[in-house]
Amino acid sequence: MLKPIVLCIFKGFDAAMRLFCPALSGALLLVFTSLGAALAGPMDEPARVRLTKPCEKPSPGGCIIHISMEGTITSDTPQKLLAVLNEEMRRISAPVVPYLNIASPGGDVNAAMQIGDLLRKTTATVVSSGPCQSACVFVAVGGVERNLSGVGIHRPFFAQTQAKNFFDADQRYKKMMNSVRLYLQEMNISDDLLRMMVAVPPGEMQVLSPVEAKRIGINGFDPAWDEYVTAREARTYGLTSAELRKRRALIESQCGREELMRSLAELQKREECRRNLRERILWGMSEEKVTRLTAMSEQICRDKPLDSDETRNCRLTLAERIRGEDEVRPQSSSR
Given this model, what pLDDT does residue 145 score? Predict the structure, then answer.
């Protein structure tokens, strides 16, 4: 039986709960039932979890810290990750937001889901240049933002089964798959992923292309997180979420979609295009007016808290003033 993970949840941040337990008091116990140590993927060295970049500037919304996880996921990997998070939070006395770089051939499915649940509650970002195979995918989908390469999937399986007969094995398998299904639903992952997994025998590995990984929801934003950050950004520009999405789509249509880029040069050209167009299109103003807005905001709004309603309203007021300048011009006198 796996040991329960002790998590402390501090509920005072944005829409997403963030981990916060410098004193480990008032903790909320999250107990995950064992799946009989269901395993997927080859057994290599147990995963190492390391803090690679500590918090540099704590903020009310949480401080980003960089963590690496390399190797096979085992039953004690969740505790290793939790220890790194707790140590950094004790040091800074503030919540943290993990940026996890993972490279893993897989491992313990139950432990992977525990890690994924922890990452979701801390609104983590998960990246990987590969491999991220088998149970690693369950870790990755816990991130609210994900950018992975080398994603490989197959059907989860037991490394050892204690089933005495077919009916016992059938019940154990159904219990495991039901837990996996519920977990993926909790992570807002499409049923397409599970269907693709069960179609690949345990002895094989299907490596997904970036387009496939994005289509089934492994790469990209968690849908609920996407709604949250879109609404937040829309307020910055005085837009509705629907209008912001239209303007984002316009930028993409002119600069190209990331997953369609075939070289580093194409990616760099795309990013340059986005930098040149983004503020103009989102503000709905000319480059000259956006430049003026930026300069005026730095001067007039600088004393207000960053990423606050005060700063947002200050910028919006300035934007309306600049837009209205063309409408209020002195009329030439006529004789």
Answer: 96
